[in-house]
Specification:
153 residues; alpha/beta; 4-stranded parallel β-sheet
Length: 153
Amino acid sequence: MICKPASLMSNTVVITGASKGFGRAVAKAFARCLDGSIHFVLSGRSQPELSTLLTELTDKSEPSRNISSEIIIGDVSQPHELTNLAERLFKKDSLLRVGATTETNIYFVNNAGSLGPLTNVGNSAQSAMEITNVINTNITSCFFLTSHFVKRY
């Protein structure tokens, strides 16, 4: 990520799959690179790892920075959870509260994903359930959450 000031506007950053890997690194990059207030809405399956990330984001901020956050636990591989997860991720009061008197930039990083069990094709057949889980995680949830985000904003 190239660090350029986004202005002194308020910023809301919604990240799925924020507890590990790329999602975690993206959260840290936003905290480092954005000017102004930042409200993080961090989603993932691991409450402890998301809590640790929140501490890291707020501990490293300058005293003059206004960084707030919330954690939303959810599993994008479960289609029956997606509607509820979308409602919790994209609440207007969460996304727009950072700077009620200024405009708010809203960033959505739809990062949650999984390759499932990594095996060589032919060496170990994946079950239909494993394949369905990979499709739900990487395709269904991506389309569903992005659709809900676009409808609202």
